[in-house]
Amino acid sequence: HFSCPSKTFSDSWEIIEGLRGGLSNVQEPENQAGYMLKKRKWPMKGWHKRFFYLDKGILKYAKCAADVEKGKLHGCIDVGLSVMAIKKKAKCIDLDAEENIYHLKIKSQELFDEWVSKLRHHRLYRQNEIAMFPHEKTLFHPHYPLTSSPTIPDSQSIRKRASLAKQSSLHSPVSFTSQAKVTAWLQSSDDMDRCTKELSVCEAQLLELNHLLRSMEVLHRTYSAPAINALQVPSCISAGSIRLHASNPNLSSVDLTNEKTYHETLDSPIDVSKLQEDFCRIVSHKSFHSTMKSALCMLTTEKERLKQMLEHDSCPAPSAQLMGLKNALASAVIQNAELQERLCKIHAESHIPEPSVHINLNSCDGSRPLVHQASNESRASITESLSEFFDAQEVLLSASSSENEPSEDDSYISDISDNVSMENFSNEVENERLNTGCVENGGSQEQRRCCLPSPSPNTSNISLWNILKNNIGKDLSKVAMPVQLNEPLNTLQRLCEELEYSELLDKAAHTQDPFERMVYIATFAVSGYASSYYRAGGKPFNPVLGETYECDRPDKGFCFVAEQVSHHPPISACHAESKNFIFWQDVRWRNKFWGKSMEIVPVGKTHVVLPGFGDHYEWNKVTSCIHNILSGQRWIEHYGEISIKNSNSEKCQCKVTFIKAKYWSSSMNEVEGAVTDHKGKVVHKLFGKWHEGMYYGSPPSATCIWRMNPMPPDYEQYYGFTKFALELNELDPLTKALLPPTDSRLRLDQRLLEEGNVESAEVQKQRIEQLQRERRRVLEDNHMTHQPRFFQKSRDDTWVSNNTYWELRKDPGFSNFDCPVLW
């Protein structure tokens, strides 16, 4: 049940309280209707006026009252299942419904107070309804008009179908031995109550569709109506939507009554087109697909939770012996890593007469051979990925097939596989970059670690709601979080992760055609988001003011340096160089928590210069949103448009769109782009998924430009890190001697978390944050401002490198350098 009290913040945000303590009978509220301003959905900006109708905790909206009457709704919000916050001064109302965040505004203070009062009442009523009748929730149909209509089932028919649904659910067999466990699971699961409600809605909608189909079949036989499969499909829905009854075997198996009963209920010949219109209206409505998708997601989550509970109950409770074995295993893993490191050093110092013989001492090293041919397994993976993607992109194909059918034949997939092999894995031409580096000191390791010292800690005992409930609509960068919620990397290292696929910039530097160069630049911009797919569960450490990070990678041909140049607002600047490119950016983030989701809005530009051609590319970043912050499986979504321009030439430009997931579609993480000339004519098309790969051209001759590297073994247990991320915080004695004391690798709390010492990491984190507050107080008392060491402000207020870091590192070295004490 709901028991979060109202809280008022300094910025006047207030969380609307939910149902308190025990269950109570809440009087049914009166309906509320009227116009409010609603913030436009991405990618549009600004506000527009919409008509809202609030009925028993369900808030529907459309363009006008007539559209609501006709059932032409733009959206439907379950207020009882949403986190609601208000800002009285600005007369704003925010509803976080998990899938979407709705921002509403009212101009009149009187109307604002009236809407808030009604929403409070309806929210309590809806929550009380959910709590009182978790398995018999009121069904609502957002696609039905407000007034009665012959094509709409009345309340009696809905109750009849709900009763049938309940009766059919009683036939589900449950084994006697697991009955108690399942009962306990149901009682402890608030999500199951919501899932039951979603399933009830789904079943009622499917029963309604089945009723319409049966009616049309009876009419066909009785009045010689046209065959159902010959009916004209209205343009309002796609061909894929009308196939719902054919792809769902349960739909035709639901037996409401016999054929005779259907025939008797028809008082007169009904226009088939009217029945067809009703059928299509229900199927094509957003809420129908949204409810189906939501129910499937919750069923999957609850199935996994029940499975874990059954497995847990079938095993004995963790004993001291088991914990001892676990600790012994962790110790053995650390000892094994130390032994491997010693063997690597012995191997490096030994003299081998045959240099062609390669001894791979680190069996888990994920490096590829110079020439890699796609295996059968990789081809199968490519087939699966491409079929999934091309099915979702009907606009790219001349014909669409069922979601379960491959979109192209084996020869096409073979061509794509060959393209992947040639384009993405062949590095004969690029091997010369392995011999380049910014610093000639031998500090970089050839044998890099493939595993962290300790897996990620358990965070199930942390109540995020208690931490975040007072910060609705606020910037979370100023909110102190428990160290368990962090990952053992910080924001400066995250910036370096964007260079994981720097070979795309190397390819661009060796490409003569300017339009193809732009293709590689655009793909590089997309590739920087790939590692976030598995990282929605943790957050990076916030760098303290003056903190630095370097990454010297001769194997990749670049050297990177970053510094935290500002604390309020937090600004991170970085700079990387190789013989082929120069990369820099300064980024500041605005993080806002909306109750169930957190939006991350980056501000700043990314720059890449290709000295060989005199090109200077710059582009923006897109918005990121982490969903299911408080419950369930967190997942991250990126949406927005990246606009890439060459400031030294107007010959071509590129726009890449990260497509926001739609409620009624299973397609996610899709990216589309186009490279155009100075007249706006499209020269190259790009498409793909930011967590899988990118292609350019048009099917079936599309070429793979980039694919995400395979994840290391057991990555789920190690923060979801990629192989490149595993190496970012690695510290060996040779490198340690060359680093400044401000480098992130030397930060104690981050290092302790990586080693699995959570309690000590929390102590050090608080100490380091206190040190930063004291340094800031000293600067303020002396009317001084912090001056970054390795970056300076340019004329356009962006931070750029002063090109002193690597020179100082080389001579005289940072051991003799006056650095602030950060930790």
From TrEMBL:
An individual GO BP term: bile acid biosynthetic process
Coiled coil, from the record: none
Record keywords, A-Z: Cell membrane, Cell projection, Cytoplasm, Endoplasmic reticulum, Lipid transport, Lipid-binding, Membrane, Nucleus, Phosphoprotein, Transport
SMART domains recorded: PH
Domain PH stretches: 29-124
Statement: the UniProt record of this protein carries the keyword ATP-binding: no
Pfam families attached to this UniProt entry: Oxysterol_BP, PH_8
Protein name listed in UniProt: Oxysterol-binding protein
Organism: Cyprinus carpio (Common carp)
